[in-house]
Amino acid sequence: MNAFTALFTALVATGATLELWLAGRQINAVRAHRERVPEPFAGEVTPDAHRKAADYTVAKARLGRIATLIDALITLGLTVGGGIAALDALWRRTGWAEPWLGLAVIASVAAGVLLVNLPLSLWRTFRLEARFGFNRTTVPVFLTDLLKQITLAGVLGGPLVLAALWLMMRAGPVWWLWAFGGCVALMLALSWAWPVLIAPLFNRFSPLADPALRARIDALLARCGFHSSGVFVIDGSRRSAHGNAYFTGFGRHKRIVFFDTLLQDLEPPEIEAVLAHELGHFRLHHVRSMMAVSIATLFAGFALLGWLARQSVFYAALGVPHPSPHAALLLFALAAPVVLEFATPLGAMWSRRHEFQADRFAACHADARQLVSALVKLYRSNASTLTPDRLYAAVHYSHPPATERIARLR
Description:
Elements: H1 3-32, H2 47-78, H3 83-92, H4 100-131, H5 139-170, H6 175-198, E1 205-207, H7 211-224, E2 231-234, E3 245-248, E4 255-259, H8 260-265, H9 268-283, H10 286-308, H11 312-317, H12 325-340, H13 344-365, H14 368-381, H15 390-396, H16 402-409
Helix pairs in contact: 1-2, 1-15, 2-4, 3-4, 4-5, 4-12, 5-6, 6-10, 7-9, 9-13, 9-14
């Protein structure tokens, strides 16, 4: 085992060990406070609801630990374990040349990872979520969604992979610049196509029918100087009891989307406050800044891949004896998350800062008390724990812990 192989293996093991340790801290912290509702929520969350949230959080953390181990084994098995090399050798027997050989190898790896993770996904949906009363997905709907996802991956990902492989063979050392430009163009195209063409494949979108609520929302949009192409309700209750709201699209094609489950749980003033929070992300340019960081990260990633693809030690260290364009793509796709995982706390901290800023925006343009009331209801209906481990939350929470967030609002 050379030094680079040992370093990569150590990084995978260290990342998995840290994740398991953090999950253990989360489980212990939540179980330790299971019987006592935090004082700020004593009059709003019942002991039974608090215990349910604790049990749900512990169950998810335990399943997450299994997922962490599986991910680590998949990463090591495909790289230093020789999985990619074995699939490459198998497909070379067909006599196919690039880029079709590369597409076949990449598709095989993707299919294998999907099959390995499928039992965990089934367990999460039909055992864990069902146990706590959240799952409303039937087996036919689950399988139909899976088939649609695979089809979309083939329709969108197949041409993208072929283009990348062709560029790596024909465009010379600067192939990665062309590939980067193509990925950015695809990102922007998907931002437009997602609400118009893709999301409707999975959910039914209906215009908001409540005229009083629509008038309240229109007034809020006018106060905030925000324009959208419509306010829609999706049939989220068809798959889950969890509630949510989000914006999608950009430019003139921005849509405001509410889950029907959220509209059932919240009163109109609370919905207005939640929407004001989401509007804050746009008015404070959070979406734009996150996209800029994503594009910058993508640029750096392609530049690094362009260099690594020319280094024989990159392939040898990760278990591939014969360098090839498709091996470079696969190895980088597996290795990059191992390194980026250690930057997770920075991303989570930045996201929590944005959430506090959006809360302040909402408090200025709606009623902060209504936002507090809405958040409490959402924590309760989604069985979100009120007592997470502080270190686990610092590393993984994209939103501030409930007690801290509501204390600031109050």
